[in-house]
Amino acid sequence: MELDNTKETNRSTPRKRENGLHLKPVSPEASGVGLPYAPVDWPKKGDVWSWKVGRRVAITGHFLDRYLYPPKRLHKLDNSTRRKRGLASKLSVERFLQTALPGADISAFFASFSWKVPAKKHSLTNVTRTFFAPPPEEIADLSVSDPQSDGVTCKAGNKKCNSLYAEAESPSLVPLPCDLCCGEPHFCRDCCCILCSKTIDLKYGGYSYIKCEATVDGCICGHVAHLNCALRSYMAGTVGGSIGLDAEYYCRRCDAKTSLVPHVTMLLKTCESIDSCDDIEKILNFGFCILRGSGKTDARELLDRIELAITKLKCGTSLEDIWKVKESAISTGVFHNGNLELEPTNHQDSLDIRPFSVSVQSISSDYQSEYLKLEYEIDQVLQALRKAQESEYKIAEEKLYGQKNYLRNLYQQLDKERSELSHRASGTKADALLNAILNRVDQIKKEVMKLKEMEVVSNGFGRTPKGTLKEHFGLEIED
């Protein structure tokens, strides 16, 4: 077995070798047949798999969306499908193999090709991200029905799914054929998020999800997604680069873009009928994250209304008064350009509130903009920290698994040499094999010690010795 001791010297490009294969970066939406991104002659000679990638690129330089297509012969062995469809995740591939080929060595299958597909450089440099993540807590999903209970449910087991009523409401709309996510046994396009596969939440008018109503070849897409998932995946909000979103949602299934301004308008209207300050603040912050950074005039005007409502909510304004554009001049003053100014209506009022007015105007007349500026700076810091941590994790993952694979090759070579030695009782070749085995054992011991040194990275790059980072991870840390 040939051992690949090549070390990467250029860390600005994706990994070039995996499982002994040379990985050539590809363009978005590229496709191909066989190695290095799909198996060949597996499980039988002549069985060739094909592959395809999407458009989204991860921070590591690999495509986030990649699909594997089995050879035609295997479809006859899989009772769950009668047509060719792409397998979009390792889990779906495992399920397919378990159904079509029970007892197949799944580890050997994935080791025969590279699951990760590197993107070409231009695909990375053209992508800029300007979205700011919403609060981390996930909104509760729809409760699904008890499997033992009576009643009709959708594929996901949800008895409140819109698909149960869609035919009566709009029989003329034909759903877009989908062999990707909709091919999964428990996925429903009408109530399952296309990004996380969890059910959507209809609470407060379903503000937390978006449905793609784009028409493609006379069919409606109809796939839904949590806006939280879409924001985190850079598929909603304002995103620069080749995708080019401006307060919009990008559908992973049909590539259509949907304006989110009407959705946020509905969201803001919904808040007016809610009597919980906590829920109102959560929804307003959600809308703020969707519109932030937009260059559209209507989106910016809507964002100003949301910012004003959030400020008034934090100041303890009653729920009835939060949605009023103009306040009583006697009680609270008037708003100019988003700033609260006190405007007395008579001399007596002026005498009574003047010290307070001067204090407010001198100390916090621009409170809102200063507060938002601080919030923006904190978001920037947290985003940078998250990217740094993700980058460090990917580097550690790549190097550690590379060392593990190298050791596996050494052990396999050792077994091969031992097997050859057992068939040779004596002679010059037997002595040479014995020396090779002893050298191999020493080599394995050294590589195991190297792996132990590398595992110190579990404490974090900041606590890992600089020599270890430089020697094993290719990182030079300046003092």
From TrEMBL:
<dbReference type="Pfam" id="PF23299">
    <property type="entry name" value="DUF7081"/>
</dbReference>
<dbReference type="Pfam" id="PF24590">
    <property type="entry name" value="DUF7615"/>
</dbReference>
<keyword id="KW-0539">Nucleus</keyword>
<feature type="domain" description="DUF7615">
    <location>
        <begin position="367"/>
        <end position="472"/>
    </location>
</feature>
<dbReference type="GO" id="GO:0008270">
    <property type="term" value="F:zinc ion binding"/>
</dbReference>
<dbReference type="InterPro" id="IPR056034">
    <property type="entry name" value="DUF7615"/>
</dbReference>
<dbReference type="Pfam" id="PF07227">
    <property type="entry name" value="PHD_Oberon"/>
</dbReference>
<dbReference type="InterPro" id="IPR032881">
    <property type="entry name" value="Oberon-like_PHD"/>
</dbReference>
<keyword id="KW-0863">Zinc-finger</keyword>
<keyword id="KW-0479">Metal-binding</keyword>
<feature type="region of interest" description="Disordered">
    <location>
        <begin position="1"/>
        <end position="27"/>
    </location>
</feature>
<keyword id="KW-0862">Zinc</keyword>
<dbReference type="GO" id="GO:0005634">
    <property type="term" value="C:nucleus"/>
</dbReference>
<dbReference type="InterPro" id="IPR055508">
    <property type="entry name" value="DUF7081"/>
</dbReference>
<feature type="domain" description="DUF7081">
    <location>
        <begin position="25"/>
        <end position="119"/>
    </location>
</feature>
<protein>
    <submittedName>
        <fullName>Protein OBERON 2</fullName>
    </submittedName>
</protein>
<feature type="domain" description="Oberon-like PHD finger">
    <location>
        <begin position="157"/>
        <end position="289"/>
    </location>
</feature>
<feature type="compositionally biased region" description="Basic and acidic residues">
    <location>
        <begin position="1"/>
        <end position="21"/>
    </location>
</feature>
